[in-house]
TrEMBL record:
It is a peripheral membrane protein. It is found in: Cell membrane. PANTHER family: LINEARMYCIN RESISTANCE ATP-BINDING PROTEIN LNRL. Belongs to the ABC transporter superfamily. Drug exporter-1 (DrugE1) (TC 3.A.1.105) family. This is ABC transporter ATP-binding protein. Residues 2-232 form the ABC transporter domain. InterPro entries: AAA+_ATPase (IPR003593), ABC_transporter-like_ATP-bd (IPR003439), ABC_transporter-like_CS (IPR017871), DrrA (IPR005894), DrrA1/2-like_C (IPR025302). GO terms for molecular function: ATP binding. Keywords: ATP-binding, Nucleotide-binding, Transport.
Length: 311
């Protein structure tokens, strides 16, 4: 078990992490969900022993990881947000290079590269130069590099940003099967669908703090007394939002300017349809469509912060 206790990290005047505590149980996929700048990367960099916290500590099996960072790093695989590969080498050569960095050699290294290739599925492109790979393929090799030394714990920082849907699905399935083999995984993302799909437990972060935690069911339970509705207007102005916010029983209103879509979270039982139609008429706004939605983690975040994760 990893225990993160009250860690803080200041970068000069920026308080990136403000007293975060987490537990990560053996064999689970732990999700860290939050918008850009929430402090996810800083938190996992501290867990990865990349830099120490300004205060607080991280314990692995009861011992402070900074007392023996090398020992801890041996059981840790880290997939950084930025691709860290040599573009002028092939996928195979990159794996070989990083395997050697981990101290693997000879037959053991060859066998492990083959096993890792099996896991990441490069489909015959392993002898091509990495600079000619798609974003998704680079990402898969990056993950492969972190798996070479058979880590017990894998930390993945937004591993699906900017890649094609096929690679994304492959990565999600890989993460699931690694967990089934007993690996502990810390997975950060600002894609709530991924976190919902993969993670056994989730910590939601915002502005350097944990604002909610639990399984996806437990988190959604927090909004079990509410429902979510999406309304698309022909046009919207500030007054539209103001009148919607003022409806008694409405808990949060978020607006997406791109398509004039408004998300409302409201108490179950209020006559929301009639109220929204009345307000639309009052402000002379035409409604294009209305949809009642099943609650998602995005709605939990919206209720807690008044913003969407991708604002
Ligand atoms: N080395 C640094 N120097 C100064 N400020 C930093 C540094 N690293 C992070 N920050 C700031 O700390 C805050 C948290 O950043 P962090 O990268 O941990 O967030 P995040 O949730 O991982 O978001 P992202 O997905 O954008 O990386 C941000 O305001 C960021 O600008």
């Amino acid at each position: 078990m990893i225990e993160v206790k009250e860690i803080r990290k200041n970068f000069k005047k920026v308080e990136a992490v403000k007293g975060v505590s987490l537990t990560i149980n053996d064999g689970e996929i732990l999700g860290l969900l939050g918008p850009n700048g929430a402090g996810k990367s800083t938190t996992i960099s501290i867990i990865s022993t990349l830099f120490p916290p300004s205060s607080g500590e991280v314990l692995y099996e009861g011992k402070n990881i900074l007392k023996n960072p090398r020992g801890f790093r041996e059981i840790l695989g880290v997939v950084p947000q930025e691709i860290a590969l040599y573009p002028e080498l092939t996928g195979y050569e990159n794996l070989r290079f990083f395997g050697k960095v981990y101290g693997l050699k000879g037959k053991e290294l060859e066998e492990r590269i083959q096993e890792v290739l099996e896991i990441i599925g490069l489909n015959g492109r392993v002898r091509d130069l990495v600079k000619n790979y798609s974003g998704g393929m680079k990402r898969r090799v990056n993950i492969g590099c972190a798996l070479l030394h058979k880590p017990k714990i894998l930390i993945m920082d937004e591993p699906t940003v900017g890649i094609d849907p096929q690679s994304r699905n492959h990565i999600l399935e890989t993460v699931k099967s690694l967990r089934e083999e007993g690996m502990t995984i810390i997975y950060t993302s600002h894609y709530m669908e991924e976190v919902e799909y993969l993670c056994d437990r989730i910590y939601i972060m915002d502005h350097g703090e944990i604002i909610a935690t639990g399984s996806k069911e437990e988190l959604k339970e927090q909004i079990s007394n509410e429902e979510t509705m999406e309304v698309i207007f022909e046009t919207i102005q500030d007054d539209t939002i103001k009148v919607l916010k003022n409806i008694i029983g409405v808990k949060a209103v978020n607006i997406n300017d791109n398509d004039n879509r408004v998300t409302l979270i409201y108490e179950k039982g209020i006559n929301i349809l009639q109220l929204v139609f009345e307000k639309a008429q009052e402000t002379q706004k035409k409604i294009i469509s209305i949809q009642i939605k099943t609650p998602t983690l995005e709605d939990v975040f919206l209720k807690l912060t008044g913003r969407t994760i991708r604002d």
